[in-house]
Amino acid sequence: MVSAQTPPSADDAVAMAKNQLGILEYCKGKGYVDAATVDIQTRLMGMLPPATDASKVEAAYQKGKNGTVSSMGQEVNLADVAKAQSTAEEAMCKQIGAAVNQAAAMLPK
Questions:
Q1: Residue 30 within a domain
Q2: What is the overall mean pLDDT for the chain?
Q3: 21: containing domain
Q4: For the stretch 12-39, what's the b/e string if a residue is b when 16 or more beta carbons lie within 10 angstroms of its beta carbon?
Q5: Is residue 4 situated within a structural domain?
Q6: Can you give the pLDDT at residue 4?
Q7: Residue 54 predicted with pLDDT over 70
Q8: How many separate domains does the chain show?
């Protein structure tokens, strides 16, 4: 029997989005994405409900700013993810940035 994966809680979703914001800021600091991409992620986050566990969200954000992807209790360094996928950290940053920009293109103006 195959069990369905449990969807993230509202706090988990906000923490993942905030972690991604931190990752994008980390990538921006290395020159891999631009400020507009960080601004888009910030705007996307404004569409999420407020988190009830602010410390969890802040911890996820700080991990992202240090280059650590944190999602649903799993943590891995962005450089390690890139290495595991036989690519560079810069490529991973650009891939995340492209996904954010694509999501923004679907938002109402």
A1: yes
A2: 90
A3: 10-105
A4: bebbbbbbbbbbbbbbbeeebbeeebbe
A5: no
A6: 55
A7: yes
A8: 1
